[in-house]
Structures are given as structure tokens and as C-alpha cells.
Write a structure and sequence with these properties.
Elements: H1 2-18, H2 24-40, H3 49-73, H4 80-85, H5 92-120, H6 129-154, H7 160-185, H8 194-218
Helix pairs in contact: 1-5, 2-3, 2-5, 3-5, 3-6, 3-7, 5-6, 6-7, 6-8, 7-8
């Protein structure tokens, strides 16, 4: 399973990074959302840390939807999905490979979203950076685990299903990410808060559900 996962992740990264618009559209959409919200809030009082964190995670989520739509569309072009579904490898390896690739691209996007959030939304964080980075990574694990699972449902020309199904399921992870990052931006301690435990629990639940259900969802049409 791990061998298949690394092969798929490496293959998808090569394809998306080799395309001009493979990662450009998700990056531009996320940066555009941050910029638009910065203009909308420029005439009022200074934006709070929680508001800035909500905009950051909104940009990350929309970016993630575009990423996984592209990742699962790669095998639809030449019918490779059927070959993958019928291969002797454990289907969870496909889910893990797509998750790893999506995680790598999402982290690359967030490396731009974080400074854009600080600059355009006027944030001056004074808390500890390491717990905030752990919180971002923990939320990304849940987002990518569930995004890769729901990508199997959306593949085959049903891209609109991904955003419709994904957003309600991501609410707990997004609430945890917004709360933890908002505390960091406001200068409050992040480590030791209940949201860390909630985030870890949902990461485990999403990952376990994906391992159990991915094979049925990915092979369902065939």
C-alpha cells in the first residue's frame, strides 16, 4: 500500500507541477480571496485574529477543492482510473497517495497564504509560532484525508459534488483551525487548549473512515 501511495503521489506531483496552471489556479484563488477580504474590511475597525484565521482557512479550503478535483481528474482522461481500481494493490494506497500529493501542494499554497494573511489583513502575531504551525498541519491532515476520500465521489464528471459534500463534513476541522490560529494571532496560548484534542480526534476519525470506505467509493461506478 505504501509503495503504491508514494508512486501515485510522485506521479501526480510531477504532472501538476509540470503544468502551467496545475497549481496556479488554486494559489491565485486563495490569494484573491485574502486580498478581496482585506479590501472589504479596510474601512472599519482592525480585523481580529479570529476573523483573519477564518479568511485564511476559507482560502485554504477552496484551494484544496481545486487541488483534489485536479488530482482525481488525472486518471479520468485516459481511463486509468479503471486500471487502478482493478489493480491488485490495496485501494487505500490510492487514497493515501492522493492525500500526500494534496497535502504537499496545500502546504506550498499556505506558505504563501500565511504571509499574505499577515500583510493584507494587518495581523501582528505575538504568540508562539510552533504550536500554531502544529495546529495548521493537524488541520491540513484532516482536510486532505477527507478531501481525498470525497474526491473519489466527485471523480467522473461530478466535480460539484466535492464542494457540496465536503464543506459540512469539514466544519469541525475548520472550527478547530480557526480557533487555534485565531488564538495565535491574538497572542493567546495555543498549546493545551481543547481544540487540539478535538482536531486530533477528527483527523483519526476521517483517516479511519477513508481507509474503510475508499475502496467502495472508488470502485463503485465499475
Amino acid at each position: 500500500m505504501l509503495r503504491l501511495a508514494f508512486l501515485i503521489a510522485a506521479k501526480d506531483l510531477r504532472i501538476l507541477l509540470g503544468r502551467g496552471g496545475g497549481i496556479a489556479r488554486p494559489l491565485l484563488l486563495g490569494l484573491l480571496l485574502i486580498f478581496v477580504f482585506s479590501i472589504a474590511g479596510s474601512g472599519g475597525s482592525p480585523m481580529s485574529g479570529s476573523e483573519a484565521a477564518a479568511i485564511f482557512w476559507l482560502s485554504s479550503t477552496f484551494c484544496q477543492i481545486l487541488i483534489f478535483n485536479q488530482l482525481y481528474a488525472l486518471e479520468e482522461v485516459n481511463g486509468a482510473r479503471i486500471a487502478l481500481a482493478l489493480s491488485p494493490y490495496h485501494p487505500a494506497g490510492i487514497w493515501l497517495g492522493k492525500s500526500l500529493c494534496g497535502m504537499a501542494i496545500l502546504l506550498l499554497a499556505q506558505a504563501l497564504f500565511v504571509p499574505a494573511t499577515l500583510v493584507f489583513l494587518g495581523q501582528h502575531p505575538s504568540g508562539e509560532a510552533l504550536p500554531a504551525l502544529v495546529a495548521i498541519a493537524g488541520a491540513d491532515v484532516g482536510i486532505c484525508a477527507l478531501g481525498s476520500l470525497m474526491g473519489a465521489v466527485a471523480c467522473g464528471g461530478r466535480e460539484s459534488l466535492l464542494s457540496i459534500v465536503l464543506f459540512p463534513l469539514l466544519v469541525p476541522v475548520l472550527l478547530a483551525g480557526i480557533s487555534l490560529c485565531g488564538q495565535y494571532l491574538d497572542g493567546s496560548p495555543v498549546s493545551g487548549t481543547p481544540w487540539m484534542g478535538i482536531l486530533g480526534a477528527f483527523d483519526a476519525i476521517f483517516s479511519a473512515a477513508a481507509l474503510a470506505l475508499f475502496g467502495f467509493l472508488y470502485r463503485g461506478d465499475d
